Amino acid sequence: MKIGVLGTGMVGNAIASKLVALGHEVMMGSRTASNTKAADWATQAGARGRTGTFAEAAAFGDVVFNGTHGASSLAALSRGR
Question: Assuming Cys at both sites, which of 27, 53, 65, 76 could form a disulfide with 57, CB separation 3.0 to 4.6 Å?
Fold first, then answer.
């Protein structure tokens, strides 16, 4: 299954890493496509992990997890349209 994970912090990283370990294709989304935390995660995740913006991750996923900080969630989710 293709899954989008919004957020590059501890929550987003933990969810995305577990989903990759379970065999899913995962895109970690952040404010910018060049986010270094997301790039580092994708390198560790291997072929099933990729990065993009919030909007790209939302479009990629059959399912999308919101792992952003509560105070930032509305802004991140509005970028995912």
Answer: 27
- Encoded amino acid at 16, one letter: A
Residue type, 43: T
Range 20-26 contact pairs with CB under 8 angstroms and sequence separation of 24 or more = 20/45, 20/46, 20/48, 20/49, 23/48, 24/48, 25/1, 25/50, 26/2, 26/50
Domain segments of the chain: what residues? 6-67
Show pLDDT as tens, one digit a residue, over the chain (81 residues). Answer: 999 999 999 999 999 999 999 999 999 999 998 999 999 999 999 999 999 999 999 999 999 999 988 777 877 777 655
Predicted local distance difference test score (pLDDT) of residue 70: 79
Closest CA to 20 of 58, 51, 59, 46: 46
Q: Provide the pairing of β-strand 25-30 with 63-66.
A: unpaired
